[in-house]
Amino acid sequence: MLTIFSILLYIIDMMFKLKTILEVVYSVGNMEKVEHFFCDYGGLNVVGNYETDRTVLDFWNLEPYVTASEKLIRFNNHKAGSIRLIKYNNVEQEYIRSSQNPWDVGGIMDINLRVTEVAQTFNDIRELGFHGLSDPLLQKMGPFELYDILMKGYDDTIIAFTHRVQPPLELQEGYKIPSHVYNSSITVKSLDEAKQFYVDVLGFSLLNEYEVKKDAPIENMFNIPMNMIENVTCKVNMFSLDGSRDVIFQACEFEGITGKDFTKLAIPPNRGFLMYRCEIEEIEAYYKKLLEKGIKMYKELQKIIIQPYGNVQCFAIKSPNGVIWEFLEKNN
């Protein structure tokens, strides 16, 4: 029989609603160069230019003399999966994932963008200073067959460009990059630990689980040496905040190869993919629920100003492998 107390707990659990990953926040060294790639080449749009509010800089404990400017970039006004470029001033910075390999843990490993032709994208953006970890390859990943290429670009970031072959996916014409950030990858030490954190603690949805393992010494998209690739298994869990596939992320464990650990560097104002910024409804109920589960808050719930959303309530946590998850509730 349900007690009054258990009913109240159930009601509290149902009060909050996880919505989506609104943005990937990208700390850049050269704003103009990165904007040129996404917008002049890719066709995405700058929907806002902002000076970072002092409340946000204080939220991250940055010194009073530190300033920052921002550009919010979207594909075709698709609000979820946006990219927020931020350029910090008057402060020393490190690279979050310096000279990285995909199997290095800590921080955000890559973001994923769809393209209509991977080979053409590969040739185009090498002229912009990107380089591939491999040549374009046809991949089988769980239920999907796709052409995929990991490209290392500005600020030692990696972007995955994909063209899904099966099941086929129609993309909007007239763009070099007809895509919001529909997926993103984080590399973890333990996939079981990641699954427990994202599902049992944060309440995200597990969408899919699969493994990638090569049975011959062949070229691979991760640039793992061919004499080692047969001994490496890439295990993947795919997650979503709201259960949909509009904006997802995946945790990857590379069993059989050990890389560097960038966990401590994935913090403002360092350069690279900095954090996920997520939208939630009834944030106070969610915050209370996480505290009850024993989550240590990286930044406590407080009011700050993030444009174009205005005054928001916001808090941040860090995952076991050092990824910052910032949750906010907009004032509608």
Structure description:
The chain is of the alpha+beta class and 332 residues long. It has six helices and 17 strands. It has helices at 4-15, 31-41, 54-59, 118-126, 191-201, 283-292, and strands at 17-27, 45-51, 67-74, 82-89, 110-114, 131-132, 137-141, 144-152, 158-166, 183-187, 205-213, 233-240, 249-255, 272-281, 299-306, 310-318, 324-330. The strands form two sheets. Strands 5, 6, 7, 8, 9, 10, 11, 12 and 13 form a nine-stranded mixed sheet that branches. Strands 2-3-4-1-14-17-16-15 form an eight-stranded mixed sheet. The model has no long low-confidence stretch (mean pLDDT 94).
Largest sheet descriptor: 9 strands, mixed
Mean pLDDT: 94
Structural class: alpha+beta
Number of helices: 6
Total strands: the figure is: 17
Distance between the termini: 39 Å
**Radius of gyration based on Cα positions:** 20 Å
Q: Bin the helical content.
A: 10-25%
The fraction of residues in strands falls at 35-45%
